[in-house]
Specification:
Elements lengths: L10 H9 L3 E7 L5 E7 L8 E4 L3 H11 L9 E4 L18 E4 L1 H9 L3 H5 L4 E3 L2 E4 L6 E4 L9 E5 H11 L6 E4 L6 E2 L6 E2 L2
Parallel strand pairs: 3-4, 4-10
Antiparallel strand pairs: 1-2, 5-9, 6-9, 7-8, 11-12
Helix pairs in contact: 2-5
């Protein structure tokens, strides 16, 4: 089991980190007016700037989005996952019934972190039109994309999303993953809170 003290900061402390009171900024500018700013927190043992609890689709994608972001990659991220290490997506002939419908914004997010390439290289299904109806009346609602040539959504197996997001973490040196780990207690102000 993973045991380490992790400092949680409140909104005021987080604002200090972002504003530079507790970190330093490095910037580089060429002849153009674009300035790149990178946030780097001071390194301290047993300290993570961001703790993400849950290494499923959302937690892993968030860790990748932070870890591979040019501005935030200087912050240390701890991703806690209660399960054993993910064995990867097995794209055999059998499809999983655990799927998610992803809209275009989610596809864009996954594309921005490099995960959509892993999904696109495997299998997914585009949705062009959707109609949902009520079981006890004639009521229904129809969904169509803004432009007929666009996709409305994408049906993707959950394990494939996790696998693709995890592969993007290979290049994120500031993200540390601990499997078989969970939070036992969260110390906050004014008293500790037990999660069970």
């Amino acid at each position: 089991m993973f045991r380490r003290s992790v400092k949680f900061c409140d909104k005021k402390q987080l604002k200090g980190i972002i504003s530079g009171k507790e970190c330093y900024f490095s910037s580089s500018a060429s002849n153009s007016s674009v300035v790149e700013v990178k946030i780097s927190a001071k390194k301290r043992e047993n300290h993570f700037d961001i703790v993400i609890v849950g290494g499923g689709m959302v937690g892993t994608t968030l860790a990748s989005a932070i870890g591979n972001n040019n501005t935030l990659c200087g912050l240390s991220v701890l991703l806690l996952e209660a399960s054993a290490k993910f064995s990867g997506f097995s794209g055999g002939k059998k499809y999983s019934n655990r799927v998610s419908a992803l809209n275009s914004s989610t596809k864009n997010l996954l594309n921005s972190i490099g995960a959509w390439d892993g999904i696109n290289g495997q299998r997914f299904k585009s949705i062009k039109h959707m109609q949902v109806w009520d079981a006890i009346s004639d009521a229904f609602i129809t969904f169509t994309p803004d432009h007929p040539e666009d996709d409305l959504a994408y049906i993707v197996e959950n394990d494939l999303i996790v696998d693709a997001a995890l592969k993007t973490l290979d290049k994120a040196e500031n993200v540390h993953i601990e499997y078989n780990s969970s939070i036992e207690k969260c110390m906050g102000k004014p008293s500790p809170v037990d999660f069970w």
